[in-house]
């Protein structure tokens, strides 16, 4: 089954997410499975202030692109096709932000 990255962007800091949104995140793998997909992997990323951007030899503090939303994490899903991946990604709980779906051209775990 094809795999897709679902990138989560949010304006609300993780520690400020309402409890019902946290619970919805915890329940997402079951909801995706019930809809015929599968979450293969997921991860949360640190606050944008912890990012270091690299452009050639120049290092700067902060994210690569400044936006009002920050990338809070991503997960990898298996879906029948892009339409199915988009339907699954729409289940992602978001307070003030959105998600982005991208087909994966390759996926390896290097451990």
Give the key terms:
35% strand; 2 helices; 111 residues
Derived from helix and strand composition plus strand pairing, the structural class reads: alpha+beta
Mean pLDDT: 92
Shape: globular
Distance between the termini: 23 Å
| Largest sheet features | 4 strands, antiparallel
* H and E string: EHEEEEHE
Radius of gyration: 15 Å
Uncertain runs: none
Q: How large is the count of helical segments?
A: 2
Question: How large is the share of residues in beta strands?
Answer: 35-45%
What does this structure look like?
- The protein has 111 residues and is an alpha+beta fold.
- It is 22% helix and 35% strand.
- It contains two helices and six strands.
- The chain has helices at 19-34, 82-89; strands at residues 3-10, 38-44, 52-55, 58-61, 70-78, 97-103.
- The strands form two sheets. Strands 2-5-1-6 form a four-stranded antiparallel beta sheet, covered by helices on one side. Strands 3-4 form a two-stranded antiparallel sheet.
- Strand 3 (52-55) and strand 4 (58-61) form a beta hairpin.
- The longest helix has 16 residues, at 19-34.
- The two termini are 23 Å apart.
- The relative contact order is 0.35.
